[in-house]
Amino acid sequence: MNLISVTSPHTTGPSRTQRVMAQVLLATLPGLAVLCGLFGWGSLINVVWACAAALACEAAVLRLRGKPVGFHLADGSALVTAVLLALAIPPTAPWWLTLVGVGFAIIFAKQLYGGLGMNPFNPAMAGYVLLLISFPVDMTRWLPPFEAPDLATSLQLFLGRDHGIDALTGATPLDSLRTWAGDAAALAAQPALHGTFAGLGWEWVNLAFLAGGLWLLWRRVITWHIPAALLGALALCALPFWLHDSARFASPLFHLFSGAAMFGAFFIATDPVSAATSRTGRLIYAALIGVLIWVIRSFGGYPDAMAFAVLLLNLAAPTIDYYTQPRSYGHSKPKRGIGG
Amino acid sequence: MSLLSRLLPRRRFDFHGGIHPPERKALSNGTPIRPGPMPAQLILPLTMHIGAPARPLVQVGDRVLKGEKIAEASGPVSVPVHAPSSGVISAIEPRPIQHPSGLDAPCIVLDTDGEDRWTALHPHPDFRAIPRPELLALIREAGIAGLGGAGFPTAIKLNLRDNQRIEQLILNAVECEPYITADDRLMRERAPALIRGIEILRYLVQPAETIVAIEDNKPEAIAAMRAAAEGTGIRIMTVPTKYPSGGEKQLIRLVTGKEVRSGGIPAEIGVVCQNIGTAYAVERAVVHGEPLIRRITTLTGEAFTQPGNVETLIGTPVQALLEAGGVTQPHRGRLIMGGPMMGFSIDHPMSPVVKTSNCIIAAPLTELPEPAPEQSCIRCGACADVCPAELLPQQLYWYSKAGEFDRARHYNLLDCIECGACSYVCPSNIPLVQYYRYAKAELRKQAAEHQKADRARERFEARTARIEKEKAEKEARRQARLAANRVKQAPDAAAPPAQADLKKAVNDASAAYKTAVKAAKEAEASGADNAVALRAEAERLKAHADALKANLRDAKAAGPAAPAHDDGLPALKKAVADASAAYKAAVKAMKDVEAGGDGDIDALRADTERLKAEADRLKAALRDAKAAAPAVVAAPVQEDPVAALKKAVADASSAYKAAVKAAKEAEASGDGDLDALRAEAERLKPTGSKPNCVTPRRRPRPHHHQPHRQPPRLRPPAMTRSKNATSA
Amino acid sequence: MTILIAVLALLALAVVFGALLGFASEKFRVEGDPIVDQIDALLPQTQCGQCGHPGCRPYAEAIAEGEDHNRCPPGGEQTIQDLSDLLGREVLPLDGEADSADVKKVAFIREAECIGCTKCIQACPVDAIVGAARQMHTVIADECTGCDLCVEPCPVDCIDMIEVPPTLTTWGWSRPDGVGKTPERLINVVNLR
Known about the structure:
The complex is a heterotrimer of chains A (340), B (728) and C (193).
Chain A: E1 2-6, H1 17-27, H2 29-39, H3 42-64, H4 69-73, H5 77-88, H6 95-110, H7 123-134, H8 136-139, H9 151-159, H10 165-168, H11 173-180, H12 184-189, H13 202-218, H14 225-244, H15 252-256, H16 261-268, H17 279-299, H18 306-323
Chain B: H1 2-7, E1 34-35, E2 41-45, E3 55-56, E4 63-64, E5 69-72, E6 81-82, E7 87-96, E8 104-112, H2 132-141, H3 154-158, E9 168-173, H4 182-205, E10 209-215, H5 219-229, E11 234-239, H6 248-256, E12 271-275, H7 276-287, E13 294-300, E14 308-313, H8 318-324, E15 332-337, E16 344-345, E17 359-364, H9 382-386, H10 393-402, H11 405-410, H12 421-425, H13 432-489, H14 495-525, H15 531-558, H16 568-596, H17 601-634, H18 639-669, H19 674-684, H20 718-727
Parallel strand pairs in B: 1-14, 9-10, 9-12, 10-11, 13-17
Antiparallel strand pairs in B: 2-8, 3-5, 4-7, 5-6, 7-8, 13-14, 15-16, 15-17
Helix pairs in contact in B: 4-5, 4-7, 10-13, 13-14, 13-15, 13-18, 14-15, 16-17, 16-18, 17-19, 18-19
Chain C: H1 2-27, H2 35-42, H3 56-64, H4 76-87, E1 105-109, H5 119-123, E2 129-130, E3 138-139, E4 159-163, E5 184-188
Antiparallel strand pairs in C: 1-4, 2-3
């Protein structure tokens, strides 16, 4: 009889990292579908291209670092980073834009910090912010919803050949708000701001991501803490100002269903690696992201703020953890600091 | 208060976290308890409990009866061991046991004779007639240690201080680990005996309430216990099925809402918690007089063709149980003692069942597959959500992995109960529990090393201080001797030169005094314990210097010398005589050896030569002393130098006597004791000063044999030094 | 004029804050252990002299006076790290060969061969050897720091440094092999059917 000798416990639960990653990928599908429906094939092309680029980058770096390539690629984390970044990039993006973003996210924001689990910043958002700062024009060229170009145009855009692209683009709801805030008449004249219940088109994108996020919650891949605190804080910040001056400030509903609100709340801020650890910590972390989003959207220089807010709070996560250690069994009060 | 608490509905409490692994209890809980096998050999480890190992009372070859005590408790935290069957002791030696290290442990091996003959038992059916201390002694003598998990001696847990008031006695019948059904079957089949055992515990602890906590997945056991407990006031409480609600601290929180302080014991908060199996063992011990020699063990896992519970003798090798349970097909898999969550792999099939072995799992890989390789932690926090101790397992993991054990301790690593819930839920297959065990072991090691370093530091400092003191004393003596010599060597002329010498002696003496004071101060500053002695030495030197000063004054006043006498010379003469006698004896010894024709005569001859030289040197000293005598005569009032001289003479003569003795020994034993003679001869060589402190060096040099060494210079008082060493 | 005011104002501020800092440094002075004691506490106290000093405390004093803190082979990397943390100095590579890591050794005297010369007793920095002249000596294993200073002086080479095998009480779990590895060893149990 051959016996294996291992440390206890001898049985393990069903949860696996690969499965977690796969479920996150699955949950992005509704959002991807709506994006494709509204803006054409661009997003899908981006996603496929980003995945390929991410796997290549990850494999190359793992090889350089002398790590087992197949073993680490199999955890699926590179794919999640790639998909999340591709969904955030406009569907009009040319191939090199995606490549630069994904390459930076995988090589610099993830692997150079030590790979999965060691990165202090959300890799997808780090890549996104790099692109947003370096190529602001390309990164803000969204198409108007419901006027999806055909596959050929999308491919032309992806290959960077179409020079008449500016004729195609339109302002997103957040762009419009940013431009016309304070002018009630102008706001009323913006078609992008008047969808069924929030920004035109984007309400459906956010709804789709909400659906995917709720599925993740139901599958217990994420907990409610981060999405609830983030969205709650965003809405709570928006409410009094909107009541006070609705011509200057957008409604909570508009905030919740515009831009990357739902996508960020369920898919970006919940990235466990770069978030705070404890439950209280996660509540604080997510609430602060919500506040920052509202502040930057209302007063900042960029129309949306998810990436900045998340990165800033990634930076603060260790400090939040420092102050939110749980009280352990048998101890009268929680500990502070990191000891040593 | 108690009335109120009885009237009000009980609040339900819960503990943080916990998991719900597949229970798999149906594998083994369907059949009644059957008697275990009678193996040919029983292996009884001396440590089946927490605490000091038991001390064997038997010798190899002794014939023992079933239930006879074969090893006694060796301290307050220890329990005896009894023979589980009759037979002959065949060995007392290290044998493989179930231990994660795979190391062997001392065991008593008993070859059974198959007769299973009992020793005389002393039942006490009416336990209430026995005073509590005696009842506790009875339980202790029965060798009972907690049957649930850790094996803590039961009598200690039940022995409360007079002022301790126990509110709840909790009987842990939760059995939250998957697979195990030993307590379940025990409660179903032997509930009345269990209730009797609980009554004994109640009598000992006198709690305000007694609660038997059973997980709600054992309805038959609950029913049986409810029926048996009717009218006794013992509460049968169901708790929700959740792992690890059977952990002592978790159960206490679950039942009472109270928490045991970190590092504390339940009795502090008025709770005593005992395993239900322990209650059964107590009942057998008190009511039937039977010591703890058997227990109920679950045999389970898909490799068993006849799984179930057996009442097995303690010391039964696992192999015998596997055969009894019908493990026949060869398989690759796991063999576990204990449950699947906290049990340990068994390395050797002859490992015995001990008092804490509640389960043997033999599972093929199809049932409990090989663990997957560890992946990167994604900080998902699932571990923190299930941790019943409310720790941050993730942080503990990072710090343990990085070797930052102090940080891990800051995150309450030591409160971890190693339940394995975190490893169970970890999506990355990280063997978290092993990381914590590793970190805990390292912390223990560090603490031990720290303690040892402190002791080494203390000993090193004590030694340094002692050497300093010896040095100071020697220096003081040398100064005194110098002073005396100078006085001695003064020309036998008139007073003025003598006065000059005397002045110098006074100066020397006060210098010696100052050195001594300095040494004493240093010693005081460093807190060495010989500071007092040094101070006394300094005082003595001061007195000496003062006396010399007075002498100088007197000498100045007295002018020319006064008549005097000398008693130093005869002693010196005698010493010389002794020395030459020693030399002669040595010569004789050498001749004897030569006659005997044995080797190493050269060495002996050299020694003899050395002795001769020594004798010659002493003769010269005698001459010197004679020459100096007039000076002594010239300065008669100086008592101290004379005394020092006397002492020197005495020292010398004792050395010569030793030489004589050595020579005689050499004579007596022929050439056998050459080493001794040589050492002795060396001792007679003029003693030089030798650095006493540790010799600094940069690297350990290669040590090879050096045949031609310098003759070692020895310092005699080695005995006193080693005495210091042992008492330091 | 305004420049003058500004200069004066800054000057006044400098004076005020300087005074405040001076006051604070006096008022909140931390009376810690003397640095030598703190260094000594981090050294392993084997008293082996491999650093070139006669014992750990003398070396602690030397470090406090600026000597390199990387000369303690028994302490190894960990001690260098701890000392660097304490002293705020750079982590230096160990000067000298590392002791064969983690294997604890103690001196053992082959008593049949001991001639009772007491040389090892004199060499032992922690008085862990007992014996008298012409009596065989023995090592108090619990007190031995494993410094091997007694090995060289022995005229008959009867002292060995032997490894201390782990016992059930000193044994500890080992660190898992890390990412990518399965924490498992395979046991072949042959005599089981």
